[in-house]
UniProtKB/TrEMBL annotation:
It comes from Nonomuraea thailandensis. Keywords: DNA-binding, Transcription, Transcription regulation. GO terms for biological process: negative regulation of DNA-templated transcription. Pfam families: TetR_C_1, TetR_N. This is AcrR family transcriptional regulator. InterPro entries: Homeodomain-like_sf, HTH-type_TetR-like_transc_reg, HTH_TetR, Repressor_TetR_C, Tet_transcr_reg_TetR-rel_C_sf. It comes from the Bacteria. Residues 29-48 bind DNA. Residues 6-66 form the HTH tetR-type domain. GO terms for molecular function: DNA-binding transcription factor activity; transcription cis-regulatory region binding. PROSITE patterns: HTH_TETR_2.
Amino acid sequence: MRKLKTSRQPEILDAALAIADERGLDALSMRAVADRIGVTPMALYGYFRNKDELLDGLVGRLLTEVAPAGPGGSWQERLTSVAWATRRVAREHPSVFPLLLFRSSATPDGVRVVDAIYQALLEAGVPEAEVPRMERLVSTFVLGFAVSEANGRFSSASNASRTRRGGEDAPAHRRLAEHLVVDDWDAEFAADLADLMRIIRPV
Protein backbone atom coordinates (compact mmCIF):
# COMPACT_ATOMS: atom_id res chain seq x y z
CA MET A 1 0.00 0.00 0.00
CA ARG A 2 1.26 3.49 -0.83
CA LYS A 3 0.83 6.73 1.06
CA LEU A 4 -1.23 9.58 -0.30
CA LYS A 5 0.43 12.87 -1.06
CA THR A 6 -1.22 16.15 -0.06
CA SER A 7 -2.36 16.71 -3.65
CA ARG A 8 -4.29 13.45 -3.82
CA GLN A 9 -7.71 14.66 -2.63
CA PRO A 10 -8.91 14.91 -6.27
CA GLU A 11 -7.77 11.32 -6.77
CA ILE A 12 -9.89 10.19 -3.83
CA LEU A 13 -12.96 11.99 -5.17
CA ASP A 14 -12.42 10.66 -8.69
CA ALA A 15 -12.22 7.12 -7.28
CA ALA A 16 -15.36 7.65 -5.19
CA LEU A 17 -17.21 9.01 -8.21
CA ALA A 18 -16.14 6.06 -10.36
CA ILE A 19 -17.33 3.55 -7.74
CA ALA A 20 -20.69 5.29 -7.37
CA ASP A 21 -21.12 5.53 -11.16
CA GLU A 22 -20.37 1.83 -11.59
CA ARG A 23 -22.19 0.32 -8.59
CA GLY A 24 -24.33 3.04 -6.99
CA LEU A 25 -23.97 5.09 -3.84
CA ASP A 26 -24.72 2.11 -1.59
CA ALA A 27 -21.46 0.52 -2.74
CA LEU A 28 -19.44 3.59 -1.81
CA SER A 29 -17.37 3.29 1.38
CA MET A 30 -14.04 4.48 2.68
CA ARG A 31 -12.67 0.96 2.29
CA ALA A 32 -13.90 0.67 -1.30
CA VAL A 33 -12.23 3.95 -2.21
CA ALA A 34 -9.00 2.95 -0.45
CA ASP A 35 -8.95 -0.36 -2.31
CA ARG A 36 -9.57 1.45 -5.58
CA ILE A 37 -6.53 3.68 -5.26
CA GLY A 38 -4.32 1.17 -3.46
CA VAL A 39 -3.98 2.62 0.04
CA THR A 40 -5.18 1.67 3.51
CA PRO A 41 -8.51 3.12 4.67
CA MET A 42 -6.66 5.01 7.41
CA ALA A 43 -4.78 6.95 4.72
CA LEU A 44 -8.06 8.58 3.68
CA TYR A 45 -9.00 9.97 7.06
CA GLY A 46 -6.60 12.89 6.78
CA TYR A 47 -8.75 14.08 3.88
CA PHE A 48 -12.25 12.91 4.81
CA ARG A 49 -13.12 11.95 8.36
CA ASN A 50 -16.06 9.75 7.35
CA LYS A 51 -18.39 8.85 4.51
CA ASP A 52 -20.52 11.95 5.09
CA GLU A 53 -17.54 14.18 4.40
CA LEU A 54 -16.73 12.08 1.36
CA LEU A 55 -20.27 12.60 0.04
CA ASP A 56 -19.98 16.34 0.65
CA GLY A 57 -16.74 16.21 -1.33
CA LEU A 58 -18.60 14.51 -4.18
CA VAL A 59 -21.17 17.31 -4.17
CA GLY A 60 -18.32 19.77 -4.57
CA ARG A 61 -16.76 17.58 -7.26
CA LEU A 62 -19.96 17.65 -9.33
CA LEU A 63 -20.43 21.37 -8.82
CA THR A 64 -17.00 22.13 -10.26
CA GLU A 65 -18.41 20.79 -13.55
CA VAL A 66 -21.46 23.05 -13.28
CA ALA A 67 -19.88 26.38 -12.33
CA PRO A 68 -19.56 28.93 -15.13
CA ALA A 69 -16.01 29.24 -16.45
CA GLY A 70 -15.79 32.94 -15.58
CA PRO A 71 -17.68 36.23 -15.27
CA GLY A 72 -17.79 36.85 -19.04
CA GLY A 73 -20.98 36.82 -21.08
CA SER A 74 -24.44 38.15 -20.40
CA TRP A 75 -26.46 37.10 -17.37
CA GLN A 76 -28.65 34.98 -19.67
CA GLU A 77 -25.61 33.21 -21.10
CA ARG A 78 -24.21 32.42 -17.67
CA LEU A 79 -27.48 31.07 -16.31
CA THR A 80 -27.97 29.04 -19.47
CA SER A 81 -24.43 27.65 -19.16
CA VAL A 82 -25.07 26.49 -15.59
CA ALA A 83 -28.40 24.92 -16.58
CA TRP A 84 -27.05 22.92 -19.52
CA ALA A 85 -23.96 21.85 -17.57
CA THR A 86 -26.19 20.62 -14.73
CA ARG A 87 -28.24 18.55 -17.16
CA ARG A 88 -25.07 17.08 -18.68
CA VAL A 89 -23.70 16.13 -15.25
CA ALA A 90 -26.99 14.40 -14.41
CA ARG A 91 -26.77 12.34 -17.58
CA GLU A 92 -23.14 11.41 -16.95
CA HIS A 93 -23.54 10.58 -13.25
CA PRO A 94 -27.19 9.53 -12.68
CA SER A 95 -26.41 7.55 -9.52
CA VAL A 96 -24.53 10.41 -7.88
CA PHE A 97 -26.46 13.42 -9.14
CA PRO A 98 -29.30 13.14 -6.56
CA LEU A 99 -26.75 14.19 -3.93
CA LEU A 100 -27.20 17.73 -5.25
CA LEU A 101 -30.85 17.53 -4.20
CA PHE A 102 -30.45 15.84 -0.83
CA ARG A 103 -27.22 17.23 0.61
CA SER A 104 -26.23 20.77 1.50
CA SER A 105 -24.13 22.55 -1.10
CA ALA A 106 -22.49 24.78 1.51
CA THR A 107 -19.06 23.76 0.27
CA PRO A 108 -16.71 26.27 -1.38
CA ASP A 109 -17.70 24.93 -4.80
CA GLY A 110 -21.39 25.10 -3.96
CA VAL A 111 -21.08 28.65 -2.69
CA ARG A 112 -19.30 29.66 -5.91
CA VAL A 113 -22.10 28.27 -8.09
CA VAL A 114 -24.87 29.91 -6.08
CA ASP A 115 -22.96 33.19 -5.94
CA ALA A 116 -22.60 33.13 -9.73
CA ILE A 117 -26.37 32.68 -10.04
CA TYR A 118 -26.97 35.50 -7.54
CA GLN A 119 -24.71 37.78 -9.57
CA ALA A 120 -26.48 36.93 -12.82
CA LEU A 121 -29.87 37.65 -11.23
CA LEU A 122 -28.64 40.98 -9.87
CA GLU A 123 -27.42 41.91 -13.35
CA ALA A 124 -30.83 40.96 -14.72
CA GLY A 125 -32.35 43.61 -12.49
CA VAL A 126 -33.99 41.33 -9.95
CA PRO A 127 -34.51 43.32 -6.71
CA GLU A 128 -32.04 42.24 -4.05
CA ALA A 129 -34.77 41.02 -1.69
CA GLU A 130 -36.10 38.73 -4.45
CA VAL A 131 -32.77 37.25 -5.58
CA PRO A 132 -32.63 34.29 -3.09
CA ARG A 133 -36.20 33.27 -3.95
CA MET A 134 -35.54 33.53 -7.67
CA GLU A 135 -32.35 31.47 -7.29
CA ARG A 136 -34.39 28.74 -5.58
CA LEU A 137 -36.91 28.84 -8.43
CA VAL A 138 -34.20 28.50 -11.08
CA SER A 139 -32.26 25.81 -9.20
CA THR A 140 -35.37 23.79 -8.38
CA PHE A 141 -36.42 23.72 -12.04
CA VAL A 142 -32.97 22.83 -13.38
CA LEU A 143 -32.24 20.15 -10.76
CA GLY A 144 -35.73 18.71 -11.05
CA PHE A 145 -35.64 18.47 -14.84
CA ALA A 146 -32.15 16.99 -14.81
CA VAL A 147 -32.85 14.32 -12.20
CA SER A 148 -36.20 13.45 -13.81
CA GLU A 149 -34.51 12.92 -17.14
CA ALA A 150 -31.62 10.94 -15.62
CA ASN A 151 -34.08 8.64 -13.85
CA GLY A 152 -36.11 7.94 -16.97
CA ARG A 153 -39.15 10.09 -16.28
CA PHE A 154 -38.57 11.90 -19.57
CA SER A 155 -38.18 9.16 -22.17
CA SER A 156 -39.97 7.32 -24.95
CA ALA A 157 -41.48 5.05 -22.30
CA SER A 158 -42.87 8.04 -20.43
CA ASN A 159 -44.32 9.35 -23.69
CA ALA A 160 -46.17 6.06 -24.15
CA SER A 161 -47.41 6.17 -20.57
CA ARG A 162 -48.86 9.67 -20.97
CA THR A 163 -50.73 8.72 -24.13
CA ARG A 164 -52.40 5.79 -22.32
CA ARG A 165 -53.93 7.96 -19.60
CA GLY A 166 -56.86 9.27 -21.59
CA GLY A 167 -59.64 7.22 -20.01
CA GLU A 168 -63.08 8.32 -18.88
CA ASP A 169 -61.68 10.04 -15.80
CA ALA A 170 -59.06 12.00 -17.74
CA PRO A 171 -60.90 14.25 -20.21
CA ALA A 172 -58.06 16.80 -20.33
CA HIS A 173 -55.66 14.02 -21.32
CA ARG A 174 -57.94 13.06 -24.20
CA ARG A 175 -58.17 16.66 -25.33
CA LEU A 176 -54.39 17.12 -25.21
CA ALA A 177 -53.46 13.69 -26.60
CA GLU A 178 -51.67 15.02 -29.69
CA HIS A 179 -49.52 17.32 -27.53
CA LEU A 180 -48.42 14.85 -24.85
CA VAL A 181 -45.60 13.22 -26.78
CA VAL A 182 -42.28 15.07 -26.61
CA ASP A 183 -39.98 14.34 -29.54
CA ASP A 184 -37.09 16.59 -28.55
CA TRP A 185 -36.18 16.98 -24.88
CA ASP A 186 -33.35 19.38 -25.75
CA ALA A 187 -35.90 21.70 -27.35
CA GLU A 188 -38.21 21.27 -24.35
CA PHE A 189 -35.42 22.19 -21.94
CA ALA A 190 -34.43 25.21 -24.05
CA ALA A 191 -38.05 26.40 -24.18
CA ASP A 192 -38.40 26.01 -20.41
CA LEU A 193 -35.22 28.04 -19.88
CA ALA A 194 -36.55 30.75 -22.18
CA ASP A 195 -39.73 30.89 -20.08
CA LEU A 196 -37.60 31.21 -16.94
CA MET A 197 -35.64 34.09 -18.46
CA ARG A 198 -38.91 35.93 -19.13
CA ILE A 199 -39.95 35.38 -15.51
CA ILE A 200 -36.61 36.72 -14.30
CA ARG A 201 -36.84 39.81 -16.49
CA PRO A 202 -40.13 40.25 -18.31
CA VAL A 203 -39.82 41.89 -21.72
